[in-house]
Structures are given as C-alpha cells and as structure tokens.
Write a structure and sequence with these properties.
By secondary structure, the chain is mostly helical. It has ten helices and five strands; from the N terminus they run H-H-E-E-H-H-H-E-E-E-H-H-H-H-H. The strands form two sheets. It has a three-stranded mixed β-sheet with strand order 3-5-4, with helices on both faces.
C-alpha cells in the first residue's frame, strides 16, 4: 500500500520494513556468513538474510512492538471491523496452503511457520500491512475505501504476499550488502509488483474475484492516486498497478479453473 506517514508512526515504518531492519540489525540476530540464496517468486534469485526461525522471531517481536505502541486503539476481537478483516484474512491464509498454488506462483514456504492473526487499529490512514510470520494489521481508515470484501481481499492478499515471499528478509539482506538509493528503490518497486502478482493469484483460490483488485486501485486512483512521480517512489503508480493487474487477473482465474478441474501438473 502507498502510505502517508506522520511523525513518529512506527507501525507505518514497520509496513515499509524500516522497523524490521532495525530489529534485525540491532538486537543480535545473527546473520549467516553469506545470505542464503534460492529461487524466489517468479523464478528470480532471491537472497535471504534470515532463517525460518529468525524470520518468525523477528515478526513476533515487531508484532509486540506494534501492539504496545497502539495499545488502546487496537479494536477488540468482537468488533465488526475485526470480524470482517479476520474473515477475509482466514480465507486468504487457507488459500496460501494450497500446494499447487504455491508451485504456480513459486513460493518458498517449506520449513517456514506462519502464525496468521489479523488486528484492526483505529487510525485514519487508509493502510494495512503484514509482518513476517503472518501478523496482519489494518487501519480503520482503509475499510471505507475497500467497497466490499473482494476489494479488502485485494489489499490483504497483497500484504500477505509480502510475508509469503519473505520480502522483509530480502530487504535485510539488501541493507547488509549496501547499494545506492536508486537500486534500493528499484528493488522496493519490484517487491511491490511481486506482491501484487502473488496477491491476485491468491484471490480466486480464497473465493474472491481478482478483478476486484483492479476495481480497488481504480477507486484509489479516483481518490487522488499518488502524488509522487513513480521514479521517485518505492511503489508502482496506481496506473502501472492497474495495467499489470488487468493482465494477471485472467491468468489467476484460469489457474483456479484448472485447479477446480483437477487439471494440475504433478510436482517434479
């Protein structure tokens, strides 16, 4: 999500990975001698700084920090907003466990533990994020923007995709290896686009129409879009996202239809 930050908003920083990097670099989490490399989403090479156990620990520590910061603004479990967000999150989390889908979008999740839990924070920003290990946060300002559960699923699928793709661990590996501002922006935009791609495939397997992702970003664009030019931003522009999502949504539907027909190639 594109976020508008205010001074001192550490949860928004967590969404962008800043707090996660600070936790890893500042709390004694040991790094492997070299980042572990493997084939990541889309078949690209993906260096990761954290082992599955470290990723879980970092995500849980970040979760505690967010909960401590927002305290009384975290809505109770029985609130209708929380029930709505948890219903959608649960469906997406179950879809992420479907092995043929994992192969379709090339997720590397074996050996990783995800403790899915969604919470809602009373906050005017239209924003959401998912920490490593599966802790999801939604700000109440997002809920009126997502016209229905399908559009909410578009946002949550994208955020959950960041956790499934280990983007925080990759960000830490990149921070440790250095790199200039432009290369970091390129990687950040790549991760955002990757999360869009994974998320739009999660949607039909969770029972949501992936065209709702297009509808959501068209709605966001109508609300004012993104003021910063794309080449200066760490997110793709809404126009860029809409174009890509329009291409990916039919493929996601076709993958779900093939799954429903049991027309799936066996694992190699």
């Amino acid at each position: 999500m594109t976020v508008r930050t205010g001074p001192g908003s550490r949860a928004v920083a967590a969404a962008g990975g800043v707090v996660l990097v600070a936790i890893v670099l500042g709390c004694g989490v040991a790094a492997p001698p070299e980042p572990r490399r493997g084939e990541g989403p889309g078949g690209r090479e993906q260096p990761l700084a954290l082992s599955p156990r470290q990723e879980l620990a970092v995500g849980l520590r970040a979760y505690r920090e967010v909960m401590e910061e927002y305290g009384g603004r975290v809505l109770p479990a029985g609130a209708p907003e929380v029930r709505r967000v948890r219903r959608v999150t649960d469906r997406i989390a179950r879809a992420a466990e479907i092995e043929p889908l994992q192969r379709e979008i090339n997720l590397r999740v074996r050996g990783y533990r995800f403790e899915w839990e969604a919470n809602v924070i009373r906050e005017r920003q239209a924003n959401a994020f998912c920490l490593p290990a599966g802790k999801v946060f939604v700000f109440t300002g997002l809920l009126p923007v997502a016209a229905d559960d399908g559009q909410l699923a578009a946002v949550l699928s994208h955020e959950i995709a960041h956790a499934l793709a280990h983007h925080a661990s990759e960000r830490v590996a990149r921070e440790r290896s250095g790199g200039n501002v432009l290369s970091n922006l390129r990687y950040d935009r790549m991760q955002e686009s990757e999360a869009d791609h994974i998320g739009v495939f999660l949607m039909p397997f969770a029972g949501y129409d992936p065209d709702e992702a297009v509808a959501f970003w068209e709605r966001m664009l109508a609300r004012g879009g993104q003021a910063m030019p794309e080449f200066l931003s760490d997110h793709p522009s809404p126009e860029h996202r809409i174009r890509d999502l329009r291409q990916w949504a039919p493929r996601a539907k076709a993958a779900k239809a093939a799954y429903d027909r049991d027309d799936i190639a066996p694992p190699r």
